[in-house]
Amino acid sequence: MTAVPRAALEHAHASASHASAYPASASPASRPPASGDPTWSAQHYDLELHCDVAVNRLEGVARIVGRAAGDLDALELDLVGLAATAVTIDGAPAAWTQHPERLELRPAAPIPAGASFAIEVAYGGSPAPRATPWGEVGWRHRGEGAIAAADAGAAPTWYPCNDRLSDRATLRIRITAEQRCRAIATGALVEETTDAGRTARTFVTRAPTAPARTSLHLGRYLRGAATRAAVPLVAYVPSALGPRALGDLAVVPRMLACFVERFGRYPFDDYTIVVAPDALERPRESLAGAVLRADRVDGSPAAERPLAHLLAHQWFGAGVGGADLQHRWLDDGLARYAEWLWSEAAGDASTDALAHEHHELLADSPQDFALTDPPPELLVDDRIGHRGALLVHALRVALGDLPFFALLQAWAAQHAHGPVTTDDFRRLAGAHARAGTSLDALLDAWLLDPALPPLPSRARRGRGERARLRGR
Ligand SMILES: [Zn+2]
User: Fold this and answer.
1) Considering the domain boundaries, does residue 379 fall inside one?
2) Residue 244: what pLDDT?
3) Cα of 310 to ligand 1 centre, how many Å?
4) Between 144 and 380, whose confidence is greater?
5) How close is the Cα of 330 to the center of ligand 1, in Å?
6) Dihedral sign, CA of 369, 371, 375, 378?
7) From 254's CA, which of 10, 95, 246, 469 has a CA 20 to 30 Å away?
8) Of residues 161 and 461, which shows the higher confidence score?
9) Binding residue per annotation — 309?
10) How far is the CA of 382 from the centre of ligand 1 (A)?
11) pLDDT tens per residue across span 212-236
């Protein structure tokens, strides 16, 4: 890392790794976007995008294959800050109404329940971020680049979609932009052609994904690849940082091996890390990918935590993932816990020590919401992931290591690529408890009660505690 002064890095890490204050959440002034239309589900998105990065202009055609849940005489797509110019459904022109955050479409004839249909929307404009209770999300244009990082509510700032976490579809994105701007989108790069100073790149996903886990980056990036890893690992760093920044990601293949051992097979074909040239408020995971802030990637041990967190989200989040934001603790609790597992595996602080450290932090913080019912403005609050990780640790103490890791592997495998709920997790955890024991009291305390339960210690766990667990 060459561009950022070391002192600035240390300061950033000090404030990031000890989230002692659990900073006040984003202003709840704006309501959560009423995203998604449950009357239909998307099966596939085919996006043809033309971008003039220099002037922040996007023209697109989105072809969406959908299936009707019930009889449909109207349906909605999320689209924010961009305007539709033509809409067809099954090849016939469809009427549409443009609302500030969605398009309402009316097919020429009603679509019967269960039927598949094809929507085509031509659209365009100057894409921009949108305000949500969890901060500004979506397309950001900066000089010679643009970033649409994966986030809840972000996708409609660059393509029309059914923006529900439980609505997963496959994706093909073909993006044409100025040759000097490299496009990096969710999916595997399958084709690249240059003509008259503009480069077209095509990305395809094999696994279905929610719009909230899709991303697009445009800008000057250097590309690096790890050759000796369980799956192909690709990294992009801003050209301005130089190739040394790629070396700061050298730990990722070892991390991948560590997590494959603990969580089971990696759920996708590859993994792509993008180091963003300008400040994102927080790193984000996407399907088979992640984006990090340039000033948080420097090869130091502190910088490994977000790398571990994001990589673990491929199993928990992008793979098996909460069906809506109320189940977010599942994805983030497991990803946080993975940070602690990596720390221990790398010879740093143990999971038990980290659990106690975070328990103390949480004990000193407000305990004013239940893990499964956080208010919308707290959906990105660190307390959710930290309390979720403590729950995971408490579960490990109650189950013992072998059943605990069997549970994590079963969770990742049985629900691969599927949306899940807290109840799904409770059922599977219960199936891994010793015969005659129940996890209900433990899970109820951690999930439903705002007050922080005491943390059982692995080291201090003795016969008395085992008997108590068994007796429940
Ligand atoms: Zn996370």
Assistant:
1) yes
2) 83
3) 7
4) 144
5) 10
6) positive
7) 10
8) 161
9) yes
10) 9
11) 999 999 999 999 998 788 899 999 9
Q: Are 84 and 47 in contact (CB under 8 A)?
A: no
Three-state secondary structure readout of 99-142: CCCEEEEECCCCECCCCEEEEEEEEEECCCCEEECCEEECCEEE
Q: What distance in angstroms lies between residue 336's CA and the mean position of ligand 1's atoms?
A: 7
Centre of ligand 1 from the C-alpha of residue 466, in Å: 32
Q: Residue 371's domain spans which residues?
A: 316-471
What is the 433 CA–ligand 1 centroid distance (Å)?
A: 27
> Phi-psi bin for 262: left (phi > 0), alpha (psi -120 to 50), beta?
alpha
In a domain, 26, yes or no: no
Q: Are 90 and 118 in contact (CB under 8 A)?
A: yes
The verdict on 192 and 70 lying in the same domain is yes
Contact 178, 53 (CB under 8 A): yes
Q: Is 417 annotated as a binding residue?
A: no
Same domain, 65 and 89: yes
Kindly give the distance from the C-alpha atom of residue 321 to the centroid of ligand 1, in angstroms, as a whole number.
11
Distance 108 CA to ligand 1 centre (A): 43
Q: What is the CATH number of the domain that holds 359?
A: 1.10.390.10
Task: Verify that 183 and 331 share a domain, yes or no.
Answer: no
Query: How many helices and strands in the chain, by DSSP H and E?
Result: 11, 24
**Pairing label, strands 233-238, 221-226:** antiparallel
Do 186 and 257 lie in a common domain?
A: no
